[in-house]
Design a protein that fits this description.
Helix 2 crosses helix 3, helix 2 packs across helix 6 and helix 6 packs across helix 7. The protein is built from eleven helices and ten strands. The N and C termini lie far apart (52 Å). It is α/β, with parallel strands linked by helices and 310 residues long. Helices cover 41% and strands 17% of the residues. Bound molecules: pyridoxal-5'-phosphate. The site of pyridoxal-5'-phosphate has 19 residues, from helix 2, helix 3, strand 7 and helix 7.
């Protein structure tokens, strides 16, 4: 089965005009896949790249990880067994989590371990499955892999050449998506600047991973922009600006979430307010995250009043 990975690029005219830019949005949240986002391109590319089909895919991530969800979904579709090593506190009850329930519904097996035990848990699972004669493939967390990065070079290049943007904004976590887009930008006619807005890591910690991914995707001399100014206090944390961006997006019919795309859009918003994007063509590369919006805490009310007082 070959999968068409085509999505619309939409011109958000009114929203762009309000920011003094031309705003185009690449809708990877609309890839033809449940709860779509960038993991769909990355994980399919990772599997396509394998010499032989495994019996079991093993990977790791948070219980709310889009990477784990997507891998479990692909496993269910393709008939792979998926085993997930989930980061968390194994002593805490997580069975009320809707995310975990869905992973179970998809037939994935999982174990919850402390961050320092992830490596050992993956090795242990490998040993167990192999002892029963099953062929395994381990996917790095977040699908931060050469195939994952290359999938974004291949996705980015035709889009950049068609639209010729000046800037590309993308939410950057492990950096594979941004790294791929950087490699695409280097080959593209308009050579857009790819601005990765960190959703979690400080620049000090994150930039090497983006560089690594850019090199995997064949970037020759990657000038990486990895801006950690919109990460709030890290992964899953949000602030007023994040929510302002989320609100602005939804108001114009663009679903954003406070974990990923809201931060990337907050960066775009601030760059435009500082006049750094005036009259330029800006491509916002939407990476998904709808489930993260649904699973997020209620939006803080701007007036400071609690909801029941309003
Ligand atoms: C995983 C994810 C990202 C980050 O992608 P990386 O390739 O790890 O940088 C961005 N947005 C969403 C919605 C994601 O799920």
């Amino acid at each position: 089965m070959t999968r068409k990975m085509e999505v619309p690029v939409q011109d958000f005219k009114a929203l762009g005009a309000s920011l003094g830019i031309e705003l185009l949005v690449q809708r990877d949240d609309l890839l033809p896949f449940p709860l779509a986002g960038n993991k769909v391109r990355k994980v399919f590319a990772e599997i396509r790249n394998l010499a032989a089909m495994p019996d079991v895919l093993i990977t790791n991530g948070g219980v709310d990880s889009n990477h784990c969800r997507t891998t479990a979904m692909i496993g269910a579709l393709r008939g792979f067994r998926v085993h997930l090593v989930l980061h968390g506190d194994p002593t805490r009850e997580v069975s009320d989590s809707k995310s975990l329930e869905m992973l179970n519904l998809l037939g994935a097996t999982s174990q919850v371990v402390l961050p320092q035990d992830i490596r050992g848990a993956i090795d242990g699972a490998l040993t167990r499955f192999r002892a029963s004669g099953l062929a395994c493939h381990v996917i790095a967390g977040g699908c931060h892999t050469p195939a994952g990065a290359l999938s974004y070079r291949d996705a980015g290049l035709p889009v950049f050449n068609k639209l010729r943007p000046d800037f590309v904004f993308v939410a950057s976590g492990t950096g594979a998506t941004q790294g791929g887009l950087v490699a695409a930008a280097e080959r593209a006619v308009s050579r857009p600047q790819v601005v990765g807005i960190s959703v979690a890591r400080t620049a000090e910690r994150g930039i090497d991973a983006v560089k690594e991914a850019a090199a995997w995707a064949g970037a020759a001399n990657a000038g990486i922009i990895f801006d950690d100014g919109y990460r709030s206090n890290g992964y899953g944390q949000s602030d007023e600006l994040t929510w302002e961006a989320v609100q602005l997006g939804w108001r114009h019919g663009l679903p954003l979430d406070p974990t990923y795309t809201g931060k990337a859009f907050a960066g775009l918003l601030e760059y435009s307010r500082r006049g750094m994007l005036a009259n330029r063509r800006v491509l916002f590369w939407h990476t998904g995250g709808l489930w993260n919006y649904l699973a997020s805490e209620a939006m803080p009310s701007p007036s400071g009043h609690s909801k029941d007082m309003a």
